[in-house]
Every structure is written in C-alpha cells, then in structure tokens.
Design goal:
209 residues; alpha/beta; two-stranded antiparallel ribbon; 7 helices; 32% helix
Length: 209
C-alpha cells in the first residue's frame, strides 16, 4: 500500500516538473522509496535527501543497491572535502543530516523541494526553521510539494498544515485532500517573484481536522 501511495505522489507532482529542473531536495525521505522512483523516471536529476542519521543509513543501503553505478555523496564526504568546490550536479544522490544542510545547499540552488509526511512529526519551531531554509534555497519558478496531515498533536500542541509558514512568494498550483489519505492535504506551490497574498487565503480556508 505504501508503494501505491508513493506512485500516487509521483503522478500528482509530475505535471509540474520539467527536464530543466535538475536539483531535487527531499526533506524526510523515509527509506528512499520516493527518491528511487523519481530517479527511475528522471535519471538526469540530482536528488538530495535530508534526514536523521538512522534514516540516511537505510536510504544509502536501499538506493545503492537499486542504483549501484550511480554516484553518491555522503556526510563523510562533506567532512573530507571543501564544500565550496563541490558541484552538486555531479552526483546522483546526496545524503545529509539536518545540521549540515546549509554547508552544501546555497541560495537559489534547488529546483524542487519535497516533504511527504514528516513535517507533521515536527514541532512548530522546527517546521519554521525548515521553511526558512526552503525559502532560501528554492529557485524562482521552483516547485515545493508538501503532503502532510490536516492536524497532528505534537507535545500537546496541534500542528496544522493550514498554519505552515509559507511566505507571500508562493503561488498555490494544487491544493486538495489526498485521495488515499483523506486526513492529509497535497499542496503544490510554485516560487514566484511577485508577492501573492492569495496563498494565505487558500491555506487559512483548509479544514483544520
């Protein structure tokens, strides 16, 4: 069932992708299922996975066996190389823990950002930090795909997708209840040069529970 859900996500977002978008960043990629499918469909894209060390171990194991000839960049490589001289596009997969993400990813360097079912596991402070990071790295016309629960209680505080801290430079291209998980929303947004306050109206009108 999980694999069917992942395929559904690919189907949902692929209409907003093109061959010129080379750099994909997935925050919280599980064991690498979505990343593997993106790579199979778009072999020319570099996929950056930002996750906790335990998940990175699983992702490295899973992806390296599916793509044994692909080029991987790991956290240990970051410690052994000058980050200013690393060319992201030379790698197929880049696996990094959260605390090192700013060392490699620079302003306006990423075409596509994906978060699927992991922001809903974070508190508001961490979500805000990630949104600040996304706002920094995403290119103009870049795509941000978010799939998370309408509401989940974390530390006795409700975490709602309707309250995620999108800034005014997003244009919502798609926003609907997920057809396989009715308690979640699919949101696809495009990074815009011009401020677009309609985004706030769309988000605030989402169901909260």
């Amino acid at each position: 069932f999980n694999e069917i859900c992942i395929i559904n996500q690919i189907y949902r977002v692929k209409n907003y992708l093109n061959s010129d978008q080379k750099i994909v960043c997935e925050i919280g990629g599980g064991f690498g299922s979505l990343a593997s499918k993106i790579k199979k469909i778009y072999p020319n894209k570099t996929i950056i996975l930002i996750d906790l060390p335990e998940s990175l171990v699983l992702q490295n194991f899973y992806l390296s066996r599916l793509f044994p000839k692909n080029k991987f960049f790991l956290y240990s490589d970051l410690n052994n190389k000058d980050s200013s001289k690393i060319k992201i596009s030379e790698y197929d997969f880049i696996l990094l823990p959260p605390w090192s993400k700013d060392k490699l990813l620079k302003k306006n360097s990423v075409d596509i950002v994906i978060n699927s079912r992991s922001f809903m596991e974070m508190d508001k402070k961490v979500i805000k930090e990630y949104f600040n990071f996304i706002h920094e790295i995403i290119k103009i016309d870049g795509i941000f795909y978010c799939l998370n629960k309408k509401e989940k209680i974390i530390n006795n505080i409700p975490i709602r997708i309707a309250e995620y801290p999108y800034d005014e430079n997003w244009e919502i291209k798609f926003c609907e209840q997920n057809n396989m998980h009715p308690n979640m929303y699919d949101i696809i947004a495009r990074r815009a040069e011009i401020k677009n306050y309609e985004t706030f109206n769309i988000l605030k009108n989402l169901e909260r529970k």
